[in-house]
Amino acid sequence: MINLSSFFEERLENLYCDPTTRAYITGIFTKYKTATDDLSCSGSILLTYAEAKNQQSFQKLNNIADWLFWTETVCPEFLNDASKDYYYTIGQLSYYSCYKLTNKKWLVFERLSDEFIELTNETRKLIKLNQQQNLI
Predict the structure, then answer these.
(1) DSSP character string of 47-110
(2) Among 86, 42, 78, 73, CA closest to 60
(3) Tens digits of residue pLDDT in 43-78
(4) What domain count does the chain have?
(5) CB 40 within 8 A of CB 78
(6) How far is it, in rounded angstroms, from Cα 46 to Cα 114?
(7) Domain that holds residue 93
(8) How much is the pTM?
(9) What stretches in the chain show pLDDT beneath 50?
(10) Residues in contact with 94: Cβ distance below 8 Å, sequence separation at least 6, in sequence order
């Protein structure tokens, strides 16, 4: 029997990024196996971001970025209140804020910020490609 972490590790083994970033992304998928960090009912994601930024809350900024990464990858149709660029920008800014809050020591957050669009798109493709292959 395969656990959730192993499931995503297997599907993302060809994700073009360093091993630390790949492990972090795998962790995002295991983080959202429950709805405790779900932001879909939080109202405005921009207001949530502004509040987290004002508070300099690593936890809140990290959750915003991770949730946007997860949603953009697994169910992008849920992000339909604004343009993709809007959500990409908030995700990138949230990860970059996490990077700055760690005194620029956790490079994974800088990579996730810089490569947010590419990583979400490639992750979505790999997950869907593997799902389709398993159906054949």
Answers:
(1) HHHHHHHHHT-HHHHHHHHHHHHHHHHH-GGG--SS-HHHHHHHHHHHHHHHHHHTTT--HHHH
(2) 42
(3) 688 899 999 999 999 999 999 999 999 989 988 777
(4) 1
(5) yes
(6) 20
(7) 4-11+24-127
(8) 0.86
(9) 1, 135-136
(10) 49, 52, 61, 62, 64, 65, 68
